[in-house]
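Quick log. Single chain, no ligands specified.
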Amino acid sequence: METKQKNIDSDARFRKLIENSFSGITLLNRDLDIIYRSPSAERINGWNMAERVKNTTKDLTHPDDREQLILLLNEVLDSPGLSKTGCFRSLHFSGHYIWLECVYTNMFNEPEINAIVCNFIDVTERKLAEIEVQKKTSQVQYLLESITDGFASLDENLCYTYVNTAIENMVGMKSENLIGRNIWEIFPDAVGSATYHAIQKAFTEKIYVSNEDHYEPLNLWQENRIYPSGNGISLFIRNITSQKNQELQRELLSLAVTQSLKEKNNILESIGDAFFAVDENWIVTYWNNMAEKVLQTPKSNIINKMLWDVFKDAIGSVSYNNYHEAIATNQAVHFEDHYERLNKWYEVSAYPSGKGLSVYFKDITERKVSEILLKELNNDLKKQTKELATSNAELEQFAYVASHDLQEPLRMITGFLSQIERRYSDKLDSKGRQYIHFAVDGAKRMREIILDLLEFSRVGRVEDSIEPTDTNKLLNDIISLYHKKIADKKAVIQYDNLPTINTYKVPLRQVFQNLVSNALKYQQAGNVPVIKINYTQTSKYYTFSVQDNGIGIDAEYFDTIFIIFQRLHNKEIYSGTGMGLAVTKKIVENLGGKIWLESEPGKGSTFYFNILKK
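-> predicted structure:
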């Protein structure tokens, strides 16, 4: 009686754990009708069993998601023990749709369950944040490609991460020949130039810098506006070669003004910029037609009048101060200013002379509005990115807690089943003992999955520090760990003169261990494994390769194998939970690199991954 009562108590505790789970749990029959729904599932979408009994899972799924759901469920129905993950919109009781991240597992081979088990959580906030980020990113991209100025972003190593079409046209190079390369490697002739010093100043001091410069190899006059951005910089470049040529022409024409008033008027009235001139007392001596249009002031209202009497509201403005500075220093000034009365932005160049000041300006309102909008979009993008990072961190914490808490009831189930087998084996027939074996084996496999999930959730929580790591010694340790398996298979593992790198030792060891383990495991029966490990390096990365002569992988599965719990083979043939490569990918990406492969069925596989140099 005492044992029976303990079993009842254990079952009650397990049911209480399920019913109070943070995630929703439902059971579906073969017609995909809901036959059980946990209280947490009802809380998530507002439906109770009585209200949902007349609906199937497909009925309540958003029409745009049903085809994807049906394909996933049909695949799960056809494969006992198979788990598939998907993210779908589900109808909430209130009438709106929410996003659910679901894991469907075929457990019809488990008599006690005999259903598809669906475990799901509400990820609406995360999905909406992702959609908003994608929308903002598209808007930013559209703006950057629509502006006439060149735009480029550089990372912390001053390597290009983005260039727009205007930059490609300006330098005569495609983006694929620029992205990922250091700016001074591409343009060594610019080292030491005014542009070089301006970029270095903005990058090191994290301040806005602007300048003009001439790049001889391209015969390019450029106006640069350089902004600090994260760990790198954003660079706006305007091709002002034409303007510079025009300025030269203006200077030459200004000399001719003193010789021919008629010739001067013809020239100044034909140029595209607005122009006016004042004498040493700020009396307006010239006001061209374009100045009338841009400042909406007729010549008759300004000629022979003091400039600041007509534009009293501009006293103390940026233009006012720069004009006085040009007169005081006898140096030309170039700047931008916003005129409140007309709500317009202007680009201004003022040239002092012994007789006063000559001013050229044009309306740049459209460009400035685009720049302001771009800045706002960047701020919104940073906010959305931060919110998405917070949401991902919460999901990782959920996976860790859920996996940790599920281990105890699994140990209890395994323990009680073992007790039943030991104490009542003489009372059980072969079928009963087989059922117990299946249940214990299933619990053990679930514990392996939970442990792998714990490991996956911990990736990125680095507790050790960067240290010099000898990859030769690292592989020696791994070979010692797999000594028996290597000896049994007579495997050959080849490597030599691998580098010592500064990185996190434990995660790197786990990457090599997972790849070597897979290379040993996925072999044809009787085949002698041959594993070759090599590396190359660039100024930024170490790139390692792990090559084997195993069963190989079809190209259509190159992405699938890195997804959590995805397996290509029956567990009876090749053991495992399908977590190894998912963990490996997450570790490599956290170390600043990426992982990929080359493979053909029957011809082996080569996995590549790179590690960012520290």
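The first strand starts at residue 24 and ends at 28.
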